[in-house]
Write a structure and sequence with these properties.
Number of strands: 14
Low-confidence stretches: none
Number of helices: 8
Mean pLDDT: 87
Largest sheet: 5 strands, parallel
Order of helices and strands: EHEHEEEHEHEHEEEEHEHHEE
């Protein structure tokens, strides 16, 4: 089943407000995920494809500033700060940390929806080039990736399925697509996906490659898309099998 084109993650400890915004997003054709804490937000970002974050500042286990700063190490995912903290210093800090917009509580739900649509449009809709990748392994096994909507679809024997990827899985797949038919070193992949100053163990990359194969390959033990290049790393290629 093909889902919503864009999904918004709301990170706010006000559950009632989050549910109200979620209802509005669904009415406008958007997907919605909710997190009450920074830890919950990290868990979602590791497991789900998200296109925009609506981020409060005051959270039970830290601040939205900290989450945004960490996110910017690895991703350009658009962020709108939504907070009752309305001082000029807070707004400047939020934007300096990598936020794309800042709206003060209490706000108009209509205005919030307008800002979300505008940022989604600027981020995904007005690019000069919409990158689309189509990978084939024979005529009955196809993977389509649309970076304009962060969508991955697998077509097997004429039937299409949405492929749900975590933030890191998606970024890893895009990077491999951008370097199709090239052997990419493990160290390069780790630095590009997790950031140059990461503390990620090499086994983390191996696990993410395994998860990608489980979601994309007909037989993960005999991959036809994501190949291991022994002594180097990995390569994405097509096959006639």
């Amino acid at each position: 089943m093909v889902g919503c084109k864009y999904t918004v993650l709301i990170v706010d400890d006000d559950r009632d407000l989050s549910e109200l915004i979620c209802d509005m997003l669904h009415d406008n054709g958007y997907g919605c995920l909710m997190a009450n804490t920074i830890d919950e937000a990290y868990d979602i970002l590791e497991q789900k494809a998200v296109h925009l974050i609506l981020l409060d500042i005051n959270l039970p286990d830290g601040t939205g500033f900290e989450l945004c700063k960490e996110l910017r190490r690895v991703s350009e995912l658009p962020v709108i700060f939504a907070s009752a903290r309305t001082s000029e210093d807070d707004k400047i800090t939020g934007l300096d940390m990598g936020g794309d917009d800042y709206i003060a509580k209490p706000y108009s739900i209509k205005e919030l929806m307008s800002r979300i649509k505008s940022l989604i449009r600027r981020t995904y809709g007005f690019k000069e080039k919409i990158n689309e990748y189509e990978l084939k392994a024979g005529k009955d096994n196809i993977i389509k990736l649309d970076t304009s909507g962060r969508k991955v679809i697998r077509i097997y024997k004429g039937e299409a399925f949405d492929v749900s990827l975590s933030l890191k899985e998606y970024d890893l797949l895009v990077y491999l697509c951008e370097h199709k038919d090239q052997a990419v070193a493990k160290e390069t992949l780790v630095n590009e996906i997790w950031g140059a100053f990461n503390t990620v163990e090499p086994s983390t990359l191996t696990v993410h490659i395994r998860w990608l194969r489980e979601k994309l390959e007909k037989d993960p033990s005999k991959p036809v898309f994501i190949k291991t290049v022994w002594g180097v790393g990995y390569m994405l290629e097509e096959s006639d099998k």
